[in-house]
């Protein structure tokens, strides 16, 4: 596969570049690297651009030995396969099994966990050139690293030496400089900041890393020491963390074969979201490239800077998510700023009843009913009990949180989280005025400001419609729930992906596909998952049958009497009439097809496009140690 030069560049780490990372790295060609007898290629695992360049290096190294005796070979030593997988690799090279079978057997063994198919180009080229290219498993099986962490270095080394997986003299020792680099991989700190004091947080983990380095170096050293190796070349493919700054694999190779250093070269891979620009005489890097090269300056002789297309997509998705969140926050801030104005209580009561709220729940809400914003009735599934701790995700103006507070009583607690600061302010004021045991906080449903395992029940009513990353939202709900805790989320979905040539409202743009919900929630970890679509129509019937009118009138009367009990009520005049028309300045978000921007939506049957559902799940476990909710 050909990768456009615009997506990657190989740069020589010149002395001037190290002094001024903003420009003047020397741009080089792959053939220059491939001339070396030993190439140690540090990678970001399974990155398509990296694998493509590795394949180009592989082909160029083969071309350099084509004029050598027929016995000369290129040995590709791969981190991705353990030493015990060599027989499987040999069967593949001998065409006894194909790539799909190799990947299946690899997965069945299950110890290494790499994406074998991502390296198809490298693997298939080796199989097509069996006389010139040999594949080698390079790492000790991961089970040995687990043994080291559990039973200690000596036990793991003894077992590894019995299998000839490492040198007899190996002790898994390392330097402070190596640990500084290792720590930087885990923390993002600058490995070249030698003034920074080292912590001991990760020291216990380093020997397991070194054990892998030792096994790969031992494999390479055996190939170098082979009597027939004079014309052979070696390409080592391993993660950046196993070779950066000469630590790990190269350190142990050159300790055994110091003269080989002059015939070897190394490559360190670094992704970027930036476009890479070639210019006459070399590569001129934008100022932000210094950030890209943070932690890579001097890590190897060459640096492969590649445009991470997946990261670009993820960055675009994050930017779009940020836009949606900002737009949502702004829109609902407008709603919150006018929520103190009274609304059409009769219409609110009809809507809540049609969604399943009981007369007692509606009466308990009282005058706050006209600030109802949901798409369903989570309480019928949540079965909130007295004394429980409840979290309302996307609590809005607080209606469901207030109902929940009635169920938990004085012994329990309710916390509402919402992205709109104005709605949080209004809900907080109303909770104080009512004396409700509810606290509202401003926050992002994808990054909840709530500790792990401290919530009995998570409810949400309509807010998940506007969460850009639905999976992350469900993961956060799972995280904060106690073992055995339950989740009830009322949300709207699309039955099929929406046509891209139609302008849809922001909310519909981020509706989740109904078919994706159940597998997503199960994959997060919830059990007993149910997607209740028994009341899925998007249009809510609010007209009452004749025999229900008296009951409705009685319920509205209960709500009106509750309103009058509140001494602080300033204005009881409706600001929205029974037709939903704004007459007093109350702001709404959902204008539907009446909005001029979305008049074309009147041509669509929303019941055909979308569905309201209730997502129900339970976090496994129960009786485990849990955290205390601070709210």
UniProtKB/TrEMBL annotation:
Residues 385-503 form the Methyltransferase domain. Belongs to the methyltransferase superfamily. Arsenite methyltransferase family. It holds the Pfam family Methyltransf_31. Residues 568-577 have a biased composition (Acidic residues). CDD domains: AdoMet_MTases, ChanN-like. It comes from the Eukaryota. It catalyses: arsenic triglutathione + 3 [thioredoxin]-dithiol + 3 S-adenosyl-L-methionine = trimethylarsine + 3 [thioredoxin]-disulfide + 3 glutathione + 3 S-adenosyl-L-homocysteine + 3 H(+); arsenic triglutathione + [thioredoxin]-dithiol + S-adenosyl-L-methionine + 2 H2O = methylarsonous acid + [thioredoxin]-disulfide + 3 glutathione + S-adenosyl-L-homocysteine + H(+); arsenic triglutathione + 2 [thioredoxin]-dithiol + 2 S-adenosyl-L-methionine + H2O = dimethylarsinous acid + 2 [thioredoxin]-disulfide + 3 glutathione + 2 S-adenosyl-L-homocysteine + 2 H(+). It is an enzyme of class 2 (transferase). Residues 566-597 are annotated as: Disordered. Its EC number is 2.1.1.137. Keywords: S-adenosyl-L-methionine, Transferase. It comes from Triparma columacea. PANTHER family: ARSENITE METHYLTRANSFERASE. This is Arsenite methyltransferase. The keyword S-adenosyl-L-methionine applies. Residues 31-253 form the Haem-binding uptake Tiki superfamily ChaN domain. GO terms for molecular function: arsenite methyltransferase activity.
């Amino acid at each position: 596969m050909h990768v456009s030069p615009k997506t990657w560049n190989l740069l020589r780490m010149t002395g001037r570049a190290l002094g001024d990372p903003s420009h003047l790295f020397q741009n080089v060609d792959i053939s220059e690297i491939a001339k070396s007898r030993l190439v140690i290629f540090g990678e970001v695992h399974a990155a398509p651009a990296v694998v493509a360049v590795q394949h180009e290096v592989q082909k160029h190294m083969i071309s350099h030995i084509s004029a050598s005796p027929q016995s000369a070979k290129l040995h590709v030593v791969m981190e991705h396969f353990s030493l015990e997988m060599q027989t499987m690799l040999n069967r593949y090279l001998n065409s006894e099994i194909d790539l799909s079978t190799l990947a299946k057997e690899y997965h069945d063994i299950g110890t290494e966990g790499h994406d074998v198919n991502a390296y198809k180009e490298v693997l298939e080229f080796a199989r097509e050139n069996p006389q010139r290219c040999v594949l080698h498993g390079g790492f000790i099986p991961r089970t040995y690293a687990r043994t080291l962490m559990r039973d200690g270095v000596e036990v793991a080394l003894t077992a590894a030496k019995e299998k000839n997986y490492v040198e007899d003299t190996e002790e898994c020792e390392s330097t402070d400089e190596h640990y500084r680099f290792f720590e930087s991989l885990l923390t993002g700190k600058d490995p070249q900041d030698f003034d920074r004091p080292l912590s001991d947080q990760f020291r216990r983990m380093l020997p397991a890393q070194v054990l892998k380095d030792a096994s790969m170096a031992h494999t390479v050293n055996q190939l170098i020491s082979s009597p027939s190796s004079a014309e052979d070349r070696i390409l080592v493919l391993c993660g950046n963390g196993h070779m950066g700054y000469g630590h790990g694999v190269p350190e142990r190779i050159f300790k055994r074969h110091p003269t080989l250093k002059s015939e070897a070269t190394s490559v360190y891979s670094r992704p970027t979201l930036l476009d890479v620009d070639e210019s006459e005489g070399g590569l001129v890097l934008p100022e932000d490239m210094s950030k890209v090269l943070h932690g890579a300056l001097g890590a190897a002789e060459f640096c492969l800077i590649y445009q991470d297309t997946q990261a670009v997509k993820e960055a675009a998705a994050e930017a779009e998510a940020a836009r949606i969140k900002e737009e949502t926050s702004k829109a609902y801030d407008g709603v919150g700023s006018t929520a103190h104005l009274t609304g059409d209580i009769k219409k609110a009561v009809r809507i809540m009843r049609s969604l399943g709220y009981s007369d007692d729940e509606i009466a308990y809400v009282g005058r706050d009913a006209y600030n109802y914003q949901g798409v369903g009735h989570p309480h019928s599934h949540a079965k909130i009990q007295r004394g429980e701790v409840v979290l309302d995700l996307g609590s809005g103006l607080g209606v469901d949180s207030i109902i929940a507070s009635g169920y938990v009583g004085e012994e329990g607690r309710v916390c509402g989280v919402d992205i709109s600061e104005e709605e949080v302010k209004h809900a907080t004021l109303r909770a104080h005025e009512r004396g409700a045991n509810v606290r509202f906080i401003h926050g992002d449903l994808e990054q909840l400001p709530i500790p792990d395992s401290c919530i009995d029940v998570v409810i949400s009513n309509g807010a998940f419609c506007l969460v850009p990353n639905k999976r992350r939202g469900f993961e956060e709900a799972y995280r904060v729930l106690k073992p055995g805790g339950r989740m009830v989320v009322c949300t709207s979905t699309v039955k099929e992906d929406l046509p891209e040539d139609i302008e849809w409202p922001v909310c519909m743009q981020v509706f989740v596909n109904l078919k994706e919900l159940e597998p997503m929630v199960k994959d997060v970890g919830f059990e007993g998952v149910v997607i209740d679509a028994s009341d899925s129509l998007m249009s809510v019937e609010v007209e009452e049958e004749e025999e229900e009118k008296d009951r409705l009138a009685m319920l509205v009367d209960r709500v009106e009497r509750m309103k009058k009990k509140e001494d602080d009520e300033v204005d009881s005049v409706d600001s929205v009439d029974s037709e939903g028309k704004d007459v007093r300045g109350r702001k709404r978000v959902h204008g539907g097809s009446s909005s001029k921007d979305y008049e074309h939506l009147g041509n669509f049957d929303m019941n055909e496009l979308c569905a309201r559902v209730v997502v129900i799940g339970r976090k496994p476990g129960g009786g485990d140690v849990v955290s205390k909710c601070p709210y």
